[in-house]
């Protein structure tokens, strides 16, 4: 499962952990869109084939944050600058994200922070079923106190924030007993209250997702038996119903850049143009 981010000028796409059999110790592969060419990052890491580290991008600075990093002890926050191909490391408090992999995270512009949910440890023990918040401006960490029934603990799930960061959606993944999930949960960011939406008709894990206007979109992944087809999951956050089609917000049609962020595993070739217009991390 790949994780990726894009440069502030949208000319360079970066993928982290390209393959479990990758040679060398480069942090990432870099695709240069204008020249249609690939190269490797000059940044070298201890364990480049480590799985379960997710990239979340701060749209203000353009920096990419990889909680857990590529050390053997998962104790560092890697901070990668795509534009300069350089990296710094921040030590993480042991009571937050240390030894936590296969989590999901999104940037919230309303709080100017990154929130993380789910994940598992290297010893196959579940992480705490809480939301951990990281604030890039000061490097601080918090555990957010939420109300309402929380989503069951999971890994390999999809998580996306709405354009204004007022809502966060958690979708699918795998429960602690190995069962593939098909449920959908919504966090109201202002009140930090969870509500549960209707489940999708089949399980989904390793899915890519985003929110466009009031519509949650998810595509790709696995249903527990096979890789799913190209059907896109469309869920209207306003009506609380799944829909079969929708009209993109006008600011997408006009080509405006938007700061809603969400994601997971990659942008497929057949994804809608309005999703391509929206800068996001995967």
TrEMBL record:
Domain of life, per UniProt, equals: Eukaryota
Q: Does the keyword Iron-sulfur apply?
A: no
Q: Supply the Pfam families for this chain.
A: Kelch_KLHDC2_KLHL20_DRC7
Q: Which UniProt keywords apply?
A: Kelch repeat, Repeat
Q: Which InterPro entries match?
A: Gal_Oxase/kelch_b-propeller, Kelch-typ_b-propeller
Region described as Disordered? 263-282
Instruction: Say if the entry is tagged with keyword Transmembrane helix.
Output: no
**What is the protein name given in its UniProt record?**
Galactose oxidase
Species name for this entry? Lobosporangium transversale
